[in-house]
Structures are given as C-alpha cells and as structure tokens.
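Notes continue from the previous slide.

Worked example: a multi-chain complex. Inputs as given:
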Amino acid sequence: MTPEEIKNKIQTALPGTALKWVRDTLLIENPQDLPKVANFLKTSEEFRFDYLSSVTGADYLQYLEAVYHLYSMEKKTGPFVLRARVGRDQARIPSLVPLYRGAEYQEREAYDTYGIIFENHPDLRRIFMWEGFEGFPMRKDYVQEDSEILEASDIEWLEKHQVQVPEGMKKRAEELKKQGRRAVAERPGQPEPQ
Amino acid sequence: MIFGSGVLRSMLITLKNFFTSYFKGPEEGGIFTVEYPETRLPEKERFRNFPFLVYDRNPENLRCVACDICAKECPPKCIYIVREFDKEGRPLKRPAVFDIDFTVCMNCGICEEACPFDAIYMDHEFEIAGPERQSRLLYHKDDLLKSNEYFHKIRPTDATAIDQQRREAEEKKKAAAEAAAKAKQPD
Amino acid sequence: MEKIFSARDPSALNTETLEINFGPQHPSTHGVFRMNIVCDGETVVSLKPVMGYLHRNHEQIAENMSYAASMPYTDRLDYFNSMSNNFGYSLAVEKLANIEVPERAQYIRVIMAELTRLVNHVSVIGFLLNDLGAFFTPVLYAFREREKILDIFEEVSGARMMCNYFRFGGVKYEIQPHILQRIKEIVKKFPKFLEEFEALLSKNEILCMRCQNVGVLPKELAVSASITGPMLRASGVDYDIRKVDKYSIYGRFKFRIPLGEKGDVYDRYYVRILEMHESLKILDQALKDIPATGELVSKKMAPFLKSPRNFKPPVGEAYGRVEAPKGELGFYVVSDGTPQPWRYHVRAPSFINLTILEDMCLGHKIADVIVILGSVDIVLGEVDH
Amino acid sequence: MDTRFPSEKAYPFDSESSVGMKTEKIFSMQTLDQIFIIAKKIILGVTGHFLPDWACLLTSILISISAIAVLGPFTMMYLTLLERKVIGRMQNRIGPNRVGKWGLLQPFADGIKMLTKEDIVPLEADKVIHFLAPLFIVMPALLVFAVIPFGRNMTAVDLNVGLLFFIAVSSTTTIAIFMASWSSRNKFSLLGGMRSAAQMISYEIPMVLSVVPVIMMAGSLSTNSIVEAQSRWHGLKWFVFTPWGFLGFIIFFLCAVAECNRSPFDLPEGESEIVAGFHTEYSGMKFALFYMAEFMNSFTLSGLAVTLFLGGWQGPFLPSWIWFFLKTYALIFVMIWFRGTLPRVRVDQLMGLAWKFLLPLTLANLLVTGFWYFTSRPVRIAGSMVLLALAFWILTKLNRDVVPEKRVYHFAE
C-alpha cells in the first residue's frame, strides 16, 4: 500500500483532520489530531501499526517538530512516519503513551531535549538532565558554556603547569574578564530552515 | 530426572576445567591469562593507539605542512596546530606548534585517514602512563615526531604501500615539472 | 503493642515500607544506573529508574561535526557492539545519500555484525549469572571465547572494542584470507563451547528456580512498549529486523528466529543461546559465499574517505535500523545539504527496553530486580547517550 | 597432681613416659601420630621443674589456647589463598601469583593492607555496637575450636556435651551479624542482617536434626566418643557409609554451608544484590575480622562434619591429625567448588528449602535410623534405602515449584 493511499484512507475515516505530505511523511497539521490518527492506524485491521519504533523531536527554528516512526509487527510493514509541528513557545502535543507504552521514555527524552510538552503524559520529567536544569539542550538556539575558550583562571593554572598558551587565547580571556562575561560558545552561522 | 542432577552436572564442568587448566593450553580451554609484563600478546599491525608524526630522514624534514585538516576533522578536537612563519612573516609549510592532548584523544584514527600528506599515523605505543596528567599526557611536537623507519617497523605493509605511493606521486610531479620546463623552453 | 497490631484485625500489621536507592554506585547495575526502589520487606512495591549519569548529549555532538566524524562516537554508544552501531549509522546515511555498498563489503559487514552478536550474547549471559550470584565462572568462560573474537576485531580494524571499522558505502580495511580462516576456526569451535556453557547453566536447578517465572513480560505489553531484540522474541513475538527489512544481504542467508514461550528471564536467557546458534549458521554461509576479491568502498564514496568534510548528502531524511544484539538500533538523520547533519537521533534499544522495568519487577524480591535488569541487557553508554 | 586432661588419660601408649621414650621408638608411627602431644608434654616437663602445680595446669591450658589462636587465623589466611587459587583454576585463570612463589605470601600482603587501611565508622552509626560486632563474631568462631578432635588425643577440651557446645556457641554468630547490620545504619546492611537472622535460625533446625542420628548410634554427645564409635574396619567404618549417615551428611553439609554464609547460600552478604550485606560499612581490620570468622567457621564446620560422619581422625596408615586435615580440606574444597559453580538462591527459596525440604527429610532420616537400629543387616540396608528414596521422591513431588519446568522453543522461519 502506498503512503498516498494510507493518507486517503485516514482522511475518509477521520474527516476533519488536516493532513499534508512532507518529504514522504505525513504531517498532521493540528497536533491535537495526533492521537486520533495514531489510534486509527493502530486499531484498523488494514494497517495494524502496533509498534511505535521511535519518537523524537527536531528543531527547525520557526517551529518544533515531533516525528513518530510507526511499524507493524503483525503485518511486518512500515515504516509510516507521522509528524506534528508546534510553535516554539507553545510546544504542546498530546501524548501517545495511552496508545503506545513505548513512547513513555522517548517522549520524556523529547521533552528533556527540546522542551516539547506532551499532554497527558503520566510522568513528564526530565530524564537525562538533572532537575532544575535550565533550557533545552538540543534546541538550535541553546547556548552552551564552551570549554574550548579558556578563562583567565584556566590560563593561570595551565601556565603554572608549564603549558604554552597561545597569545590569542590569553587576549580573549582578558577581554572576557574585563567584560565580566563567561566563556560561551559561538555558534556557526545559522543554516537555512527546511 | 532426579532433583539436583543439574547442579551436579554443572559442578562436573567446573571440576573438569579445574583439572584441564593444569594440562591444556589456551586453545583447548586451558588458562588464557597472559602474564602481561613478562609475556605479551603479539602486536597486531593495524593496532592503533595514539597518533604520531612521521618525518623522513631527519626530524627537520617532517611531512606535516600544518594544513589543519586533521585538527578540523578530529572528532574530540584534541589536535592544536600553529603554523610557522619566517622572519618576513610569510607562512611556512610546517607547524610551529603541534600539540595533541592524549587525555582527550579517543584513538579513532580519523586524523590518519584525513591527512592528505601521509604525515600523521597511529602508534602502537600504549605504555604512556605517568604520575602527572597535564604535563605527561599533553604531547608536543617533539614528543610526537617519529621516523619513517619506526613506521616501517610497526606497520610494514602500510608503510611500504605509502612509500610507493609517495614515490610515484613525486615522480609524476617531477615528470610534470620537466614537461612544464620543456614546454617553457622552446620560446 | 497497639502500635504494631491493631487489635481488631490481626492481619493489619502496621509495617513501614523501606525506600532503597540502588545505584548509581552499585555492583550490579551495569554502570551508573539508579533505581529508586520502595520495598515492603524484600518485596518490591515501586521502582523508578533514574538515568543520565553518563549523558553526554551524543546527538548534539554529532550535529556539530561531519557525518564521518561521528562514526567513532557511535562506537561509544553500546561499547560492547561497536560494529553493530557502525552498521546502523552507515545504513542510515547510505539510505540518505543513496549509496550502494559493494558485494564484498556487504559480506564483511554481515560477518562482523554476527561476530558482535556472539560477543554480546555470550557476555550478557555471563553477566546475568553474575547478577544471579555466581562467582564470575560463567563470565570468565564467556570472556575466554570473547577474547578470541576481539583478537579478530583488533586484527581487522585496529581496535578491540572501539572498532570504527565501517565507512559509508563499505568498510575501512581489507580483511585478509588468514583472518577469514581464523574466523572459520572460531565458528567451528564455538558450538563445542556453547555445549559446555549450556551444560554448566541450562539445567542447573538453582538457575531454573531463580529464572523461571520471574519478570514475565506478556506479549501484548512487549509490543505496545516497543520492546525489541531478544527480549521481544523471548515473549513470543516473531519480529527480527534481519528478516523483516532484509537489510544489507541478510535476505540471502537461511536462518531461523527462536521464540520464547513465557517471556520470563529464563526464556530471555535461552533465546540468546539459540540466537547464537543461528548466528553461527549465518556466519557459516557468509564465510562460504564471500567473494575473494572486490572493492571495499563504493566508487561514489571513495573520494570522501580522504576528505570527509566534502561529503554533503542531499536534503532529506532517513531512518536506518538494524537488529543490534540488544534490539532495534535506529538512526534518524536529517540532512540540510551541509556537511553536518541537521538532526541526528539515536533510537537506543536498551534505553527503550527499560520502559517496562517497573512492570516486570513489581511483586518480586529485590534479588529478582537485579536479575531482571540483567536479563534486559542494558549498556549505560547507550541508555544515557 | 595429675596435670593431664581426661582425654589424655585414655591414651593407649601412655604406659611409659613419652619424654623418656626409647630412641628407636621416637620415629615410629605412633610418635608421629602423637607428635603434638609429645611436644606439649616436653614443654610441661620442663616447666614442671620450677613451677607450682596450678601454674602447670595453667600452662597446659595456655598451650592449647595458643595453638588454637595460631591455627585459627593461620587457617583463615591460607584458606583465602586456597579459595582464590582453586576458583581461579576453575575459571581458567592463574589466581594470585605475584607475592612470593605461587603467591604464597599473598595472605600476608593482604593482612598488611587490611591493617594499614583507614577504619571508617559511619557518622550515624551506633559506635559501640559497631565496634563490638566484629569481636563478637570472631569469638564463637574461635571458641568452637575447643571441642574439635584434631587427632588422637588432640581435643583441647573433651566436653561430654561437646556437640551441644559446638552448636550452641556457633549459633551466637547470628547476634553478631545482626549487631553489625543494625549498628551500621545502612539499608543494605539491614537487609543483610534480616536475611541472616532468618537464614541462620531456619538452618539451625535441620542441621541439629541431621546430627541426631549420629548421637543415636554413637550414644554420646562427646565428639571424641563419636569418633571412637567409627573406629572399626581399620578406622574406615564411617557413618557416611550407611544410608542414614549419607543423607545426614549431605543435609548437615548443606546446612553448614548455609550456616557460614557461603555460596550458594551467601544471601546475607550477596554482593550482587545488597552490595556487601551486613559488612557494607566496615573497612580495614574490622572487615578482615568478618572474613576471618567466615573462613574459620567454614573450617570448624567442615571439621565437625568430618568428626560426625567421616570418621574424624580415623584412617589407616597415616597419622591421625593428617587424616583429619585431609578430610577437612577435602570438604573445604567442596565448599570452594560450590562457590566457583553455583549461583545464589533467592531468600524465599532458601527458606523453602530449609522448611519444606530439608526438615521433613531429616525427620524421615531419624525414623530410618531407628529402623536401622532395630533390624538386622540385610533388611536394614535395603529397607532404609527404600524408605529414604521414597521420602526424597515424595518431597520432590510436593515441592513442585522448585523443580525446573520443561520448555519448548519454537522457531520462526
């Protein structure tokens, strides 16, 4: 069955859901429709997509995206990829945990790294980062403290241990110290969104 | 099956191993310990540990041209290169500083692959432990330099193949230069 | 006395639950993994896994470097099976950039992946027995065999565990005939070792007592919880990506998929043993059919070996998955046409297999929690990626 | 005043003073057999010249005590080496081989390491009890050496209730373990202590009951008399060669393994589950004392098993104490062999094994012993074997939950 047919089937079964074709995958334009579509795909005799392989987030600068890879263990078909897009500020997508238990940790991971809030998730906490960590490290605008730019105290320590520190680094560290700033990574020029 | 026979059977296996350990070699299921400082496993040719820089003939004549490709490609970014300049401030084709932080290096061999000048290779040396981290494991240019003969010693197959390639490339270059010179001469 | 017994109902004994932190420093959590266990006596009432102690944001690291440069980082995901990790990643990128892999390289890949499976399964069984309280004997027997295979890896790729051997469109080094001969010898001798291993373990009453009907994972829950690998097959679900996707050249080999009956720890143990037998079959066939000569890297990719930064896959996305020894290892890669991936995601099997750890452990004793965790087969490098 | 112990009075070769023994007899078998007794007597003979009688008695006691005090820790030290070597060989390793030839000095290196380690007491611990527990655990382990007959006439104190003394004293170990676990204020320790209490109490019962047939047949609680009762057939008529003795021996040995917390019953310290159990919070020499107690316990319990079922120091050709040590070390080898092979059982299965399997079996064994006592030879061998086999079969049928299930594995193409 071609993906195009699956899309048509979904649209006939669930009228009112706005679907769009993006890169061979099905974009659900209103994220709130996601559980409906997933439930249809899981329960309908024709598809039986009973296995949610992967859930992940992605950051496309204007919006965040959640990507779901569905397979069928019964029919041994797949993958069928769903995606939902949300704004960066109100990143709210209904959780798929009631349908697929396997989404539990993966949604927690997506929340941890991208800050997508999965509604109705039974236990939405950070999973890799510690409690109280600020920001979402996988977002493209996340600025990381950089260990490659040395601070004045680092240079002091290194020189005490007979390590040559190049002049440029020293100058930079002094500038930073004057400004009272910490070393943060410079991001390369932002690539263009899809 | 009597209850307990499975336990007895597994105990027989260990007893068998207890006795065979006295008689049999490692291949037949005997002791496979290698008593390390006294005996060593044979060195594998492709074994890679930390990188080193190759020079031809004398240490002044090192192959590295400070192109910075390995430093850019290095996944954990453990290579730091500064190009050397002559008195007039023109860049020379050799590094002034070539540091590798072995505490960061993860022995992946990407630098070796990426180097277009066959200048950096993975060493077999692995006993580099020392009492101090920063001074002992930050290797500078002088520590990294090793001769082509050493490279031949540890990895004969690769070294001969690379020497062959280099020779061919040089000959081609020479031929091209001669051809160019010939082409220039007539006028 | 009143405090302890309520006079009316003697069964209502006033007891308190005990909250125990298993890990992150604990001898048998297989790394820095923590479980918050609430137990009533020794019976587990609630269990919450806590992870992330080894988190290094593997995905972000990979998004900030060229495609080829994250190959050695995939080694560090599941550091027991670096070859399988390489396989998954190169498969994803090959799908993305539409690269064909030459015949000989395909065979080498399959041989390496199956050797990795042997290494993993045999040591996992050893560790499981360690968790059961055996004093290192099965582990060391397993390591005796593992050592031989690791020697092969070292000779082929230059490293024992962090192989970094696969390249997009092929493999890095040639594999010489004498190494193939040695692999053949290993494959020939391995069944004898498995026989000894089974005699040591499979019928042992204590092992059966400890493993049978412990940590039962029903079929439906296993499917819904996205469990993959030997754990899923122990629950009786016939799903092996080598058969389903027939990726690489797995479609050419004849092998069977062992299925468990109940989905308890014993089934997981025994399915792994049976899978090793099947792997040996694949190895046998692959070693027989491997072409004697042939190119190692496809022509399209050969120039990029020297200059990985010039490799820019076309705009698009791909999801490549392989049947790693621990389960489905998937790599989701999105390219924006630059030398660095725009999005790189790892579907780590042992991370997702942990989802239902609590469901399996409830009502069992503390000692069983360790065994169940051992039978899930996690590697913290992958869980915390 | 006669300074000899009662046991020494029964010495058959005592008619002539051993100090003034004729030279041609010195290197005979009997001298070798009695070499330690002779040595003691020489010392007593020398001291007797210038010490009053009571001091002589005290010296005699002190000699026995110091012999045990040297033997106990020394046994423990070399048992650790033996264990590491044997398990190493079973796992195709070499084992310790760096300190001294074949690692023979390894125990001393370990001892020095233990002594120089920092002694850490947790902040919240009950310091007095935390300090006392290691002492309390070593004391009974050393005390029970007193009633072990190491050879002919080589029992430090020949109590007429020796067996009872042994069992009573060795069971106090539970208290020490519980002290250690409770005072450490550690949840793993506490779990280990709870397990230990449950396990020790449950295994005490089948252990005592498995000894009763021996007492019935020997008619005495004195360890010496029990050994004497096995002296026929040139010292080869051991109790283990009878059906009830064989079963009693197996049960006793299993319970002994459980009593001294050794694998596969090492739940109180089960390192893969509860880190180190009751001695999680101990370090340095205190930790070493726990180990010492464990190894001395396994030595004394093997010694007792030898005394009760394997004829003690009885045996042809070799001197009696060599026989005793040979047999004891053979049993210790089996304990080490267990540790090298078997995984640990779970706590409920452990209790189930004691209460549902071993206890009924010992009771059946008691009945069979009575049957044996009152019947004549051809009937009693066949009858008791049949009875015991029947009991074993019934019990395995009743304990279906521990019998392995047969599994069938399917393959999908």
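Summary box: Helices of chain A lie at 3-13, 34-43, 103-114, 152-160, 167-179. The first strand of chain A starts at residue 19 and ends at 22.
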